[in-house]
Amino acid sequence: MSQDILFSPFHIGSLTLPNRMVMAPLTRNRAGDGNTPHALNVEYYAQRATAGLMISEATQISPQGVGYPGTPGIHSPEQMAGWERVTAAVHKKGGRIFLQLWHVGRVSHPSLQPDGGKPVAPSALAPQGETFTADGMAPFETPRTLDAEEMPFIAAQYAQGAENAMAAGFDGVEIHAANGYLIDQFLRDGTNQRTDLYGGSPENRRRFLKEVVEAVLEVVDAGKVGVRLSPENTFNDICDSEPQATFDAVAEMLNSYHLAYLHVVEGDFVSGEKTLDYPRIKDLFGGPYMANAGYTKELAEKSLQAGTADLISFGSLYIANPDLVVRFAENAPLTEPDEATYYGGGAKGYTDYPFLPR
Ligand code: 8OZ
Q1: Which residue in 99, 102, 148 sits closest to 123, CA to CA?
Q2: Closest residue (by CA) to atom 11 of ligand 1?
Q3: 4 C-alpha to center of ligand 1: Å?
Q4: Is the distance from CB of 281 to CB of 296 less than 8 angstroms?
Q5: Smallest Cα–Cα separation from 18: which of 31, 6, 32, 33?
Q6: Which residue's alpha carbon is at the smallest distance from atom 8 of ligand 1?
Q7: Which among 65, 89, 173, 187 is least buried, having the fewest CB atoms inside 10 angstroms?
Q8: Separation of CA 343 and ligand 1 centre (Å)
């Protein structure tokens, strides 16, 4: 079997990716004051610029969209200026980077909300468990139900975030519709118990995502817009009674927009189970398909060869191996990531992972 496909080019929109390896979006909680990217973040992204494509860590579109301390935003001039330094450094190294547009919905806490108010969600259902706040772990609180009239306003904030990202030099944007955050809360019937146009049938539950995609496409070319889904992930206490039907409907809806790609977190990263028919979701979408979660070099090659994916994104491998492309190409040993330094802190466990000697 040829081992070359991982290192072969791929076109999305007007971009040529030199290889099929994508750096997955990774929350690292190391933004500076005002949730602004700073020098440390510039160095981290620049180190990883040999990826075929990089996707930024999840980045909030509004103060209401914030879910954790130290995550960056794309809604203030300072944040845009910080990101501009990141994109300039990545481009100088020959890389390409999309920004991931994020609103956490109910996965927030009053202490993180601009007015100390309740987080917002499709329905007033709190996630089970506790969340990170600036003062340590705290129980989730019951969110406020969004009015239908508020939805176009939030969709417009996604579009503003996309416009800001493009102005800050990103090559495109990824709409974060995965992992139990706001859009995913609308998609799944465990968190969406609405009886209006935004709830009930799969067609109604996908409506908010459709409106966000259409709002973003008003300001960014379709070839520069990706969407991320996680059809069976239970992270952030989310579930659906019929995930295959729900996400078949989502993939079908996304088919008509000629998007850059569909990025799918396959399986449940809490239990490790993978039961859905992902090739079906890929076929219904019809465009470039980026697979994620648990891929090794061998599994990636196998999937690309079989045609069950066009691109593969790597998360934890990219945390610990800034030169992952070279390491895969040379079958060099990989560095193990240190989970204790995933979220928050400084350079340790962030920009100090070794490169192979050159
Ligand atoms: C891990 C910790 C905090 C946030 C996601 C943005 O899962 C995240 C995230 C992951 O998409």
Answers
A1: 148
A2: 179
A3: 32
A4: no
A5: 6
A6: 27
A7: 89
A8: 10
187-226 tens-digit pLDDT: 999 999 999 999 999 999 999 999 999 999 999 999 999 9
Q: Give residue 26 CA to ligand 1 midpoint distance, Å.
A: 7
Q: What is the pLDDT of residue 231?
A: 98
Low-confidence residues in the chain, pLDDT < 50: 1-2
Write down the catalytic residue from 181, 278, 295, 350. 181
CA of 358 to the centre of ligand 1 (A): 33
pTM recorded for the entire structure: 0.98
Whether 179 lines ligand 1, by a CB cut-off of 6 Å, is yes
pLDDT confidence of residue 4: 86
Q: Can you give the pLDDT at residue 324?
A: 98
Where do the domains of the chain lie? 5-341
Look at ligand 1, atom 7, and give the residue with the nearest C-alpha. Answer: 179
Tell me how far apart the alpha carbons of residues 185 and 65 are, in angstroms, rounded to a whole number.
Answer: 13
Instruction: For 92-102, write each residue's pLDDT tens digit.
Output: 999 999 999 99
The SS3 call for residue 339 is helix
Pocket test for ligand 1, best of 235, 236, 263, 318 (most atoms within 8 A of CB): 235
343 has catalytic annotation? no
Q: What is the DSSP string of 154-222?
A: HHHHHHHHHHHHHHTT-SEEEEE--TTSHHHHHHSTTT----STTSSSHHHHTHHHHHHHHHHHTTS-G
d(CA 235, CA 254): 23
Q: Does domain 5-341 have CATH number 3.20.20.70?
A: yes
